[in-house]
Amino acid sequence: MATARPRFASGIPPSVTWSLSAGVYAFVCATALLAFLLSPVSRALGPGPAGYRAAAMAAPVAVVGAVVWWAVVERRGGRAYPLGAASGLATAFLTVLFWVLVYAAVWGAGSVPRTVDVVSLAGSLIAFVLAVTLPAGVVAGVALLYARRRLGGES
């Protein structure tokens, strides 16, 4: 016997609403981080005014954040803080990986000189960005999970 899915007042299940909210929240956090703490990095890698540059570079985190939040927290139905931390960590890591792949595709292997200095500079930049974004992602994920537990919706 098949069971009917529960109906929600808005027609959108809370898990979808929270996943979309997680994407928006991650975008806002990433934009603020890029505009203030990582502004030298975003200035070096992207053109345009600082606010627009930070928002453009943070744009992928909205999609990545929503998908990761759904996969790690909502799909499992878990409300444990380590899941929120893992979600924020994975969101930050996957977004940095996305930009590394984009810049590698744009610049291509042929246009980058194969010297130790360039490789070590790129590696240092990636390590610096990861060192800043990974802890920020963990904090943002735990904060969002706290809000999810307090404001709830169905389990």
Keywords:
155 residues; mainly alpha; 5 helices
Rough outline: elongated
What is the percentage of strand-forming residues?
under 5%
Q: How many separate helices?
A: 5
Overall strand count: 0
H/E element order: HHHHH
The SS-based structural class is: mainly alpha
Mean pLDDT across every amino acid position: 82
Which residue ranges are poorly predicted, with pLDDT under 50 across at least 5 consecutive positions? none
Largest sheet: none
Protein architecture, described:
With 155 residues, the chain is mainly alpha-helical. The chain has one domain (14-151). Helices cover 79% and strands 0% of the residues. The protein has helices at residues 14-36, 39-45, 50-74, 81-111, 116-151. Helix 1 packs across helix 5, helix 3 (50-74) packs across helix 4 and helix 4 packs antiparallel against helix 5. The protein is elongated.
How would you sum up this structure in a few lines?
This protein is an all-alpha fold and 155 residues long. The protein has five helices and no strands. It has one domain (14-151).
Topology:
Layout: H1 14-36, H2 39-45, H3 50-74, H4 81-111, H5 116-151
Helix pairs in contact: 1-3, 1-5, 3-4, 4-5
